Amino acid sequence: MRLHYQRVNPDTGGESFCLRFEGVVPDGVGCLLFNAGRGVDVESILDDDRGEKLLGIVLTSAHPECYSSLDTNVAEDVPIYTTRETAQIVAASLTGSKARSMDHPERILDQFVVIDGWNQLLEGLSVHPVPVGHAPGAAGFLFEIDDGNTFRTVLVANEYTEESAAGFQGLNLPPELDLDAVVLDAPDETHSPNSLTEACSVICDRVSTASSVLVTADEPTALHVTALLGELSNELGTPETTIPVGRIGALWEQLGYTNQTVRPMPDGAPPLDGNGVVVATPATPIEGRSKRLFDGLVDDPSAAVIRLTHRDATPMAAARCMAQSLPWRHGPTKSSMASILESLDPVQVILANRTATATTATPIQRDSFVWEVSDDLVYTLFDGSEWVAPAELDAETASRIRRQQPDRYDAPQMSEYGPSIDLPRREGVDITTEGIDLSAVDARHGRTPDPVESEPVNSEGTDTETIDNAIAAIRSNLSTVEAIIEQEPYTATVVDAGGDICLLRITDLDPAFEHGQSVELLIDPLTAGVTASASDESKAHTAPQLDGERTDATDETIQN
After folding, report:
1. Which domains does the chain have, with CATH numbers?
2. How far apart are CA 347 and CA 390, in angstroms?
């Protein structure tokens, strides 16, 4: 048996790669494509002279970028392997009045094969799905390869988290599971690991201050944020309602979610009345149901539209409402990758990174062969006799790593006698296991801690601890006053944004504040009573820009 790895769209998305199993298919090479992403062309990567054949397409999640080229790459009778929930989410996006435009959607849906437990793709090659968190319905896939002499194991979990995702358990495989090779995403350290907490905090803040709030996202993300907002409302004791609409409302019911603060609306027009938050698709509110809702808020300066994005945002359209894009990146961290590799102890580690920054940001210091592939060349991982080391690794180090790896080939096969392996299943949504910092959301939501009752003072007078606490409080207040006095003053122009919203435009601003940052102000009305000029008024009503990311192929093809 020989095993090869190839990234197939490193320049157009990076979410797709191919594993080639040589010596398993008679007189040929069996190929599995993982995710039919942007710019993927299966015919161009298969070598007919070597007898390469597409065994199937594996979808690791229902994010649109994972299946955007599915219609052009799935031939008749080629199975599409995935989990039941991912199949449901994709099916919902390809059907109905607001369906994503794809050729032959019925044929695509007919070729879905749900993997639920061990599934033999062909003789000598079996697969089992494993939970990976990341997004509702997402899964990793554990492969067992038997060439008649020995068996070897490969785990594909390119999108994974230790935290749950809307009730779907994170990656947590049993430590007794022997793995030879793993394909993982490396963490992208250029982005905050707390993006979900930050996004939920901003949304909760907008719900408490804006007249109407609309959140737009792709299908898995919309389900994810709906589940988190519903649970946060319960945890914080707030009355806000979350209303998933259209296909998100339908999927919420189909997947069996329940929450007393979530009111799904598969049909009809949702109320944008300031009593909660409406969640809709697609992520870019320029077409589909998101556009219809966005059009109703675009001229309302007291409304808020929040777009959850997986990539960097760029200006998209003008709007008078408060419009912003927030990152929603639920992926591995440096510590989670280290703990997972320490537990699984693989020989080969292949980093299926989407960006070069993620590849170079996190070097792996361990006794494994680590592949950081940034091109679309085919790399041999197993040559028929041993695991192959990357070319940049010297022979002495490669030999040492091979000697330190245990002999795992005498153990019984996992598919017959191995440890029990969990399936991707939805459980109850818990804020702690979801990785959300409840205190951060609570603080952003404007709540103050309940007052703490002080200890009673004894009848003989004030105790020493109370006096020390009072002195400490006075000193803290003095330090705050001194800091305020020493700060450089700034001049600001008052901008009437309509309704009860008043903005301050700070002139000659040197420090760079971040959007959504909380600051304390001392107001000195230097220009009180002065009427703004016509030019000032025109500036005050200039429409803000809606930040939007690049519209990928899937968003561009959503029908009105």
Report:
1. 2-191+331-363+368-404 (3.60.15.10), 195-328+546-556 (3.40.50.10890)
2. 12
